[in-house]
């Protein structure tokens, strides 16, 4: 059975078969998947489903949802619910875990690609690192756990995954700039600075890529657009490092040229 959470939650059985409210069963499944074979307490599941105002029947209701989920897994795999309870969706005291084989969740593949990229960076192999980051990015199919209602725990997990995705993009583009791929990075950076108007690191990369591509005027305009937005919306100036980059571009500093 293959699970996916880097986009809409997908499994090889139809969660729409669950009796209402199916969205809460999906929440439980998503939280168990994100905890990656670690036990999740019933109190955590209760908090996810009802935040800080659970009904008196919350524990019993969660147990009912677990039973439904076991039945769905059993039907999808063609095994009994008892086997699912023993081997897959296990109970320990008042906690549950979804025991899934390594590689059966897209998040596993994502983390493996990131680990390979880290090894490549440590070894100074930027091209190999870029390949690994691109493989990691290719696993995404939209926002993480996109089709599941988010309680406080899933909201935090989704935010963490979004930040990881953005960090991967930034580090890949850094490596591409070190490799001299500034021309091919321009279109992506243009979209990223529009999507993230206050991310100074992305703006700095865009400024550098533009400068190296012979577009010094546009690089300066990117800075001024960033500064205008930050002063107007946040009441702060760009960071000293971005201001220094501006001065280096103004003076055509040789340190901005690609190292040979």
Helix and strand arrangement:
Elements (H helix, E strand, L loop, with lengths): L21 H13 L5 E2 H9 L7 H20 L3 H7 L1 E4 L2 E4 L7 H17 L3 H13 L13 H27 L3 H14 L4 H13 L3 H18 L6 H11 L10
Antiparallel strand pairs: 1-3, 2-3
Q: Would you write up a description of this structure?
A:
With 260 residues, this protein is mostly helical. Among the domains are: 15-98, Arc Repressor Mutant, subunit A, CATH 1.10.10; 181-260, Serine Threonine Protein Phosphatase 5, Tetratricopeptide repeat. The protein is 62% helix and 4% strand. The protein has helices at residues 22-34, 42-50, 58-77, 81-87, 106-122, 126-138, 152-178, 182-195, 200-212, 216-233, 240-250; strands spanning 40-41, 89-92, 95-98. The chain has a three-stranded antiparallel sheet with strand order 1-3-2. Strand 2 and strand 3 (95-98) form a beta hairpin. Helix 5 packs antiparallel against helix 6. It is elongated, with a radius of gyration of 23 Å. The model has no long low-confidence stretch (mean pLDDT 92).
Strand arrangement within the widest β-sheet reads 1-3-2
Fourth-tier CATH superfamily name of the domain at 15-98: Winged helix-like DNA-binding domain superfamily/Winged helix DNA-binding domain
Strand content: under 5%
Tally of helical segments = 11
Q: Report how far apart the termini are.
A: 49 Å
What coarse outline follows from CA principal-axis ratios?
A: elongated
- The fold-level CATH name of the domain at 15-98 is Arc Repressor Mutant, subunit A
Q: Can you count the beta strands? A: 3
CATH classification, class level of the domain at 15-98 = Mainly Alpha
Indicate the mean pLDDT. 92
Low-confidence stretches: none
Compute the gyration radius: what is it?
Answer: 23 Å
């Amino acid at each position: 059975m293959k699970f996916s959470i880097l986009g809409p939650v997908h499994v090889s059985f139809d969660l729409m078969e669950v009796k209402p409210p199916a969205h809460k069963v999906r929440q439980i499944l998503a939280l168990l998947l994100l905890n990656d074979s670690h036990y999740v307490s019933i109190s955590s599941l209760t908090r996810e489903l009802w935040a800080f105002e659970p009904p008196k029947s919350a524990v019993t209701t969660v147990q009912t949802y677990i039973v439904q989920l076991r039945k769905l897994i059993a039907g999808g795999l063609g095994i009994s619910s008892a086997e699912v309870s023993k081997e897959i969706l296990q109970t320990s005291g008042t906690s549950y875990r979804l025991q899934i084989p390594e590689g059966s969740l897209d998040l596993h593949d994502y983390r493996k690609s990131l680990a390979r990229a880290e090894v490549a960076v440590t070894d100074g192999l930027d091209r190999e690192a870029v390949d690994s980051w691109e493989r990691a990015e290719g696993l995404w199919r939209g926002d993480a756990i996109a089709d599941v209602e988010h309680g406080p725990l899933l909201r935090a997990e989704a935010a963490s995954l979004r930040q990881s995705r953005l960090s991967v993009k930034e580090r890949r583009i850094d490596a591409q700039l070190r490799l001299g791929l500034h021309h091919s990075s321009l279109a992506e950076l243009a979209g990223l600075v529009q999507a993230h108007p206050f991310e100074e690191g992305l703006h700095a990369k865009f400024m550098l890529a533009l400068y190296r591509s012979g577009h010094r005027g546009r690089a300066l305009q990117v800075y001024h657009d960033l500064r205008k937005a930050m002063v107007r919306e946040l009441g702060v100036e760009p960071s000293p490092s971005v201001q220094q980059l501006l001065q280096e571009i103004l003076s055509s500093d040789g340190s901005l040229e690609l190292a040979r």
